[in-house]
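Re: [ENG-882] Designed sequences occasionally contain unexpected residues at chain ends

Forwarding the minimal case from QA. Structure tokens:
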């Protein structure tokens, strides 16, 4: 909507919108167009038909306006698109990567444990955690047959170019 009610109070690029259409980030002409106030918050007031605008000014609280009040507003410019990367040529290189992974393995193996421990999952887990030799040889880190592995987390710790010989 064009600002025709007081054109002398407006700057180029401003338009008039209703108070209930103002949104945070909008800039409103104040002091007869001598300054701009930034809207920090805009919401319906507790009384129907009114809108509360919190402006970026040293006021004690929001300005309360009739929702249909026309205000001269400048919308913020949209963020510019990032500059496109130069058409730099790409090269193929051999790299050495150091990667840390948190992996979960699920596999089945036979172990010898005391009978009292076999009846209690928590005691069994504690026993096997203390004596890894009982099951470690059954773990195939390549994820062989009957072994299910899941990578829970992976991070790249280092990378370097390896020069070809």
């Amino acid at each position: 909507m064009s600002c025709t009610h007081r054109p002398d109070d407006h700057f180029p690029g401003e338009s008039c919108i209703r108070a209930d259409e103002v949104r945070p980030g909008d800039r409103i002409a104040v002091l007869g167009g001598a300054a701009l106030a930034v809207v920090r918050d805009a919401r319906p007031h507790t009384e129907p038909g009114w809108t509360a605008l919190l402006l970026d000014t040293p006021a004690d609280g929001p300005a309360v306006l009739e929702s249909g009040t026309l205000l001269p507003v400048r919308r913020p410019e949209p963020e510019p698109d990032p500059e496109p990367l130069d058409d730099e040529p790409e090269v193929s290189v051999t790299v050495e990567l150091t990667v840390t992974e948190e992996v979960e393995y699920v596999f089945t193996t036979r172990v010898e444990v005391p009978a009292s421990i076999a009846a209690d999952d928590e005691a069994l887990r504690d026993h096997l955690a203390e004596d890894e030799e009982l099951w470690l040889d059954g773990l195939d880190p390549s994820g062989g047959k009957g072994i299910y592995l899941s990578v829970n987390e992976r991070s790249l710790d280092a990378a370097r170019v390896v020069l070809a010989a």
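QA comment: On inspection the terminal residues look reasonable. Residues 7-74 form a domain with the SH3 type barrels. fold (CATH 2.30.30.30). Proposing we downgrade this to a documentation issue.
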